[in-house]
Amino acid sequence: MKRDYSMQKWIVFFSVLLMFSAAPQSPAAAASSGPSILAFWPNALVKADGTYWVWGGSRSVPTQIHGLDHVASSFDRRLVMKQDKTVWYWEGNSPSEIRVRQVEKLNNLVDVLFAGRTLAALDADGSVHTVQWTESGLDMSRFAPLAGIDQVADMTSYYEFRPKSGKQRWIFLKKDGTVWSSSNELTSFTPVASLADIVAVERNFALKADGTVWTWPDEAAEEAPDSLTAVPFKGLTDIRTIKTDGYTHLAIDGKSRLWFWGSTLTGYSDGTQRHEHTAPIRLTGIQNVKDAFVVERSLVVLTNDGNVYETSINRERMPEHPVFELLASDVAQIKADDRHFIMQKNDGSLWGWGVNKDAQLGNGDYEFMHTTPVPVQQPIEVRLNGESVALRSGVVTRNGQAFIPLRSVFEKLGAKVEWDETNKVATISRSEGGAPSVEITVNTKTGETKLNGNTVQMANAPFGINGTSYLPLRFISESLGAKVDWLQPEGVIAITMD
């Protein structure tokens, strides 16, 4: 019998949205298998092939930013650096809006800091470039060299409280170990008195090469001079690392012990109260500390043996021996933000913990918070006849099966897509040159799917995430002329058709 390949072609287009999977896997197994990760951050990663992926906001799972390749590092405000040390930024949200541009004035970027209304970028040569926030946002083409400061090794910033008008205070650590200060305008720079041989700065704290910690007030009288004088912070010696979110402070000493001072909290919203601990406390409930972070209302600790522990700061007093709960094992490193963190296990998989209301964990949901680590979804690329498909949000895996956002594929193929918001029904239709038309309706509430009016029985129901409809990728029939390959080592779903 003669086949109708025109009709067959559009059925195939529908078929590629149906369930595609090898043997079912658990979510944990799905997280650990797949492409290797070259680098990661709290909301982005780079695959071994140099492709760049982000999550959060409208992207509930890692989603490739097309037009960026050979990426080495990711920074705040959508700035990235390629392996050739050139700096780029991207803007836009949907695939058709994404624009990638080079920032000509930046090269070999090592840090980016946004404070007040200023975005500062630090190059490896010690130069700093800045751009100001305006009503229209940040114009990355307007970066200009910051005059008056050079040979910068690190920078930090904090808000200095004053009775009538506080100010943004910028702190610069120079490569010679001196520390310099500037206020909002970044027009003049003065050395912080008493500081030399400094190796790290964190807001209004400085770590000296001899392991002592120095500090200066983050409050001042209205007419106080602009210069700062640092004094030793008593109770800490042999310190190797300092961390602070501005209120709660941590230090790790040469014996891998953890120290705490600053704020604990009780109450929420307008009823939040901060309880100050002015003297450092050695937290004897945790040992062998490699790294530590303040995340939301928790202290998160990575030990040298790869375990991750958590204890709450939601209390009036921090005891010397708080109970630390084990969150995960076999962890190599952690990248933390204020409200969540992403960790990489020794098998290469990424896992997230913390606040997730904006999909910060890349797990494919918008649950407000995950108090048990969840796997960051694999960065899975979809290729149609060898061409990479730009998706609105990345491929979602559930119960070991891959789901794809239907709109991206069909719009790329020129089909008409209609969405009934009230009933949560998508209609995809196409007519071509006298060939029989194809109409697909998908009810993401009930899971009912119809092809040309006939119900299609599917093993896995479609679903919606944040307004994007997903269908599982199966029902690919060789008799329809489609071939789907799961290239697991590359993290690629390759779809080919006649």
Description:
- The protein is mostly beta strands and 498 residues long.
- The chain has a domain of 140 residues: Copper Amine Oxidase, Chain A, domain 1 (2-Layer Sandwich), CATH 3.30.457.10.
- The chain is built from three helices and 45 strands.
- The strands form eleven sheets. It has a five-stranded antiparallel sheet, with helices on one face. It has a four-stranded antiparallel sheet with strand order 1-2-3-4, with no helix packed on it.
- 38% of the residues are buried.
Question: Any guess at the CATH architecture of the domain at 5-25 and 379-497?
Answer: 2-Layer Sandwich
Main sheet summary: 5 strands, antiparallel
Cα shape? globular
The CATH C-level class name of the domain at 5-25 and 379-497: Alpha Beta
Fraction of residues in helices?
Answer: under 10%
CATH superfamily of the domain at 5-25 and 379-497: Copper amine oxidase-like, N-terminal domain
Please outline the helices and strands.
Blueprint lengths: L4 H11 L11 H6 L4 E5 L2 E4 L4 E5 L2 E6 L6 E5 L3 E4 L3 E6 L7 E9 L1 E7 L2 E6 L4 E5 L11 E2 L6 E9 L6 E8 L4 E4 L7 E2 L6 E5 L2 E4 L4 E3 L15 E2 L6 E6 L3 E6 L4 E9 L6 E10 L6 E7 L2 E6 L4 E5 L12 E4 L2 E6 L3 E6 L4 E6 L13 E7 L5 E4 L2 E2 L7 E3 L2 E5 H7 L3 E5 L4 E8 L2 E9 L5 E3 L2 E3 L6 E3 L2 E5 L9 E6 L4 E6 L1
Parallel strand pairs: 33-45
Antiparallel strand pairs: 1-2, 2-3, 3-4, 5-6, 6-7, 7-8, 9-10, 10-11, 11-12, 13-14, 14-15, 15-16, 17-18, 18-19, 19-20, 21-22, 22-23, 23-24, 25-26, 26-27, 27-28, 29-30, 30-31, 31-32, 33-34, 35-36, 36-43, 37-38, 38-39, 39-40, 40-41, 42-43, 44-45
